[in-house]
C-alpha cells in the first residue's frame, strides 16, 4: 500500500468544527469526540455530497476524499454538475482551509498521531489546463502541508493531492515543482510514466469486468484483477476502481471482498459507515492495525 498508517485517535469534534462552510443544517451540530481507526483503503467518492464534507469522512476513518471542481468566475467551485456550483463553496473552503486547520492543530498531520498522507483526489470537470493552473496556485498557498515533487523527488506531506478528470498531463509533467500527482488509467499501466508523476491509476470497473458481485467471480476475471494490481504495484502505482456496486447487500460485499483479496489500494464508496464497518470486519490489514 502506498499510504502508511499508525493507529490514531481522531478528534471528531475538532474536525467538525473546522469544516465551518456547511452545506446543510445538519453540519451545525458537532458529533461527540470518539476514537477512530484510520482505514487505508477507504475512499470517499463525491465526498462533498455528504452533510459535512471532509468531517464525515474523517469521522469514519477515511484516508482519501474526492472533490469535483469547476473553475467559475475565478473560483474553484465544488459540485458534481455546473448548475449546482455556488459562490464560496470552493476547494479552499470545503477542503484546503479545514485541512490546514487540522494540520496546525495536530502538529503536522490531518489525523492526530498518524504518519500517513490524506489523499485529496481533485476531479477536474471544467477545462483541464485552465482549471489545473488555478488548482496549482491554490495548492501553493497551502504548501507546508502538501506532498510535493521537486524534479521528480518526493517529499511527503500531510495531504497528497491527485488530479483526476480532465487531467492536463503535459502541463503537469513540465513542472519542475509540482504539488499534485496525475491519476492515470489502466491504459497507462505500461506507459512508462514514473510513479513520481502518476502515483495512482483509476478506472471504471464496468469497462474491465462483467462480474458485479452476483455468484462467484469468474476465475479469469479474478486473475485479471490480481494481475492489474500486481503490475501497478510493481511500478509504484496505487489502484482504485469507480463504478463498483455500492448498494448495501451481498453483491457489494462480494466485490469488496475480492478487491481486498487483490490488494486494491482504494475502495470507492458513498456509504461511509458501510465501508468502515466492512473493512474493520473483513480486511486483515485493518484488523491487524486495530489489534
UniProtKB/TrEMBL annotation:
An MF annotation (GO) of this entry: phosphoric diester hydrolase activity
Entry-linked InterPro entries: AIM6_PI-PLC-like_dom, HAT_RTT109-like, PLC-like_Pdiesterase_TIM-brl, TAT_signal
Signal peptide extent: 1-28
Top-level taxon: Bacteria
Record bears the keyword Signal: yes
BP GO annotations: lipid metabolic process
Keyword Transcription: no
Pfam families: GDPD_2
Keyword line: Signal
Protein's UniProt name: Altered inheritance of mitochondria protein 6
Originating species: Blastococcus xanthinilyticus
Amino acid at each position: 500500500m502506498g499510504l502508511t498508517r499508525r493507529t490514531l485517535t481522531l478528534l471528531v469534534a475538532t474536525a467538525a468544527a473546522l469544516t465551518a462552510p456547511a452545506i446543510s443544517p445538519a453540519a451545525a451540530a458537532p458529533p461527540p469526540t470518539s476514537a477512530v481507526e484510520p482505514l487505508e483503503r477507504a475512499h470517499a467518492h463525491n465526498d462533498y455530497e455528504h452533510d459535512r464534507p471532509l468531517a464525515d469522512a474523517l469521522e469514519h476513518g477515511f484516508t482519501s476524499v474526492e472533490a469535483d471542481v469547476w473553475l467559475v468566475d475565478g473560483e474553484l467551485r465544488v459540485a458534481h454538475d455546473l448548475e449546482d456550483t455556488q459562490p464560496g463553496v470552493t476547494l479552499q473552503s470545503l477542503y484546503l482551509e479545514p485541512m490546514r486547520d487540522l494540520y496546525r492543530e495536530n502538529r503536522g498531520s490531518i489525523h492526530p498521531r498518524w504518519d500517513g498522507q490524506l489523499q485529496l483526489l481533485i476531479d477536474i470537470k471544467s477545462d483541464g489546463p485552465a482549471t489545473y493552473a488555478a488548482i496549482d496556485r491554490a495548492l501553493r498557498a497551502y504548501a507546508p502541508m502538501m506532498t510535493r515533487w521537486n524534479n521528480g523527488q518526493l517529499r511527503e506531506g500531510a495531504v497528497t493531492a491527485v488530479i483526476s478528470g480532465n487531467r492536463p498531463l503535459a502541463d503537469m509533467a513540465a513542472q519542475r515543482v509540482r504539488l499534485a500527482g496525475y491519476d492515470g488509467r489502466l491504459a497507462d499501466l505500461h506507459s512508462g510514466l514514473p510513479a513520481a508523476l502518476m502515483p495512482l491509476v483509476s478506472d471504471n470497473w464496468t469497462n474491465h469486468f462483467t462480474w458485479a458481485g452476483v455468484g462467484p467471480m469468474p476465475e479469469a476475471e479474478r486473475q485479471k484483477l490480481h494481475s492489474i494490481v500486481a503490475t501497478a504495484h510493481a511500478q509504484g502505482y496505487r489502484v482504485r476502481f469507480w463504478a463498483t456496486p455500492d448498494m448495501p447487500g451481498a453483491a457489494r460485499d462480494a466485490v469488496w471482498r475480492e478487491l481486498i483479496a487483490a490488494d486494491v489500494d482504494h475502495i470507492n464508496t458513498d456509504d461511509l459507515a458501510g465501508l468502515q464497518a466492512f473493512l474493520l470486519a473483513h480486511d486483515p490489514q485493518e484488523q491487524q492495525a486495530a489489534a
